[in-house]
Write a structure and sequence with these properties.
The protein has seven helices and 15 strands. It has 263 residues and is of the alpha/beta class. The protein folds into two domains: 128 residues, Rossmann fold, CATH 3.40.50; 118 residues, LytTr DNA-binding domain (OB fold (Dihydrolipoamide Acetyltransferase, E2P), Beta Barrel). Strand 4, helix 4 and strand 5 form a beta-alpha-beta unit.
Length: 263
């Protein structure tokens, strides 16, 4: 059986609590044939200092810490990382509503019991398995390594010879030494990227309009369109939106039918 790999961060200013959680996670990994890399941080500031999007799959975040709280740290994380599983740790349920406003995956009260942790990890593993099948682009920029899922990239365009500019869903640009040809095959593996001009490809999910030779992209980003193909590009975008809505509608109908059959 091939092992799954998880990168886990524990952010807790209580060394004893962090050590106990570390041990439980290691036991869970052993029982479930997982390869895990577990890192401990004694403050939110320490964790955020060199934080890179998608560096971790899961973060167990204590809410009550000196200086920056776990909820404040989670809000910072969400500015650049939508996919990390944030699981809050606390001694009280007082901040549960605020915690889930950061799109937290779960909330565990201390002291952490084995059965509760294992149940949460089972749920994470189910979700993680589907996420890891998402196609992604791995590249280096400004001496740091990045991994971005294709669905989280809005625009890729050439930037000088042998360089690309990649813009993610948070409108953050990355400049990497890579040619457009090098990413073409990867982008062809999904149906939502469209080349609108030579050396410029756009994620159809983030286009907001095509007019007067300009492609408008979420966040106020503009990209020039090949004028001779503008009508075709606009047609492809509109058809993509229509088919996406129709597929979503069919999915809701199937879900309601399944729920009805269970009654």
């Amino acid at each position: 059986m091939k092992k799954n790999t998880l990168d886990i961060a524990i952010v807790d200013d209580q060394a004893r609590d962090a050590s106990s959680l570390h041990r439980l996670l290691s036991d869970y990994a052993l029982y479930n044939n997982l390869e895990t890399y577990i890192s401990e941080f004694r403050s939110a500031e320490e964790f955020l200092h060199d934080y890179q999007p998608y560096a971790f799959n899961i973060v167990f975040m204590d809410i009550y810490m000196n200086e920056l709280t776990g909820i404040e740290a989670a809000k910072e994380i969400r500015k650049t990382d939508r996919d990390i599983f944030i699981i809050f740790l606390t001694t009280s349920q007082d901040h549960m509503r605020e915690a889930f406003s950061t799109h937290a995956f779960d909330y565990i009260e201390k002291p952490i019991g084995e059965s509760r942790l294992y149940s949460v990890m089972d749920d994470v593993l189910d979700r993680h398995t589907s996420i890891v099948n998402e196609p992604y682009l791995h590249f280096s920029s400004n001496r740091s390594d990045y991994l971005l899922y294709l669905k989280d990239i809005m625009l890729i365009r050439t930037s000088d010879k042998n360089y690309l500019e990649i813009i993610d869903i948070n409108s953050i640009p990355y400049r990497t030494r890579m040619t457009f040809k090098e990413v073409s095959d990867l982008l062809a593996s999904v149906n939502y990227f469209l080349e609108i001009n030579r050396g410029i490809t756009v994620n159809l999910n983030y286009i907001t309009g095509v007019k007067n030779g300009i492609c408008n992209i979420k966040g106020g980003i503009l990209a020039p369109v090949n004028l001779s193909k503008q009508a075709e590009i606009e047609r492809i975008w509109i058809n993509y939106k229509f088919n996406k809505v129709r597929a979503s509608h069919k999915g809701l109908i199937r879900q309601k039918e399944r729920e009805k059959s269970k009654k």
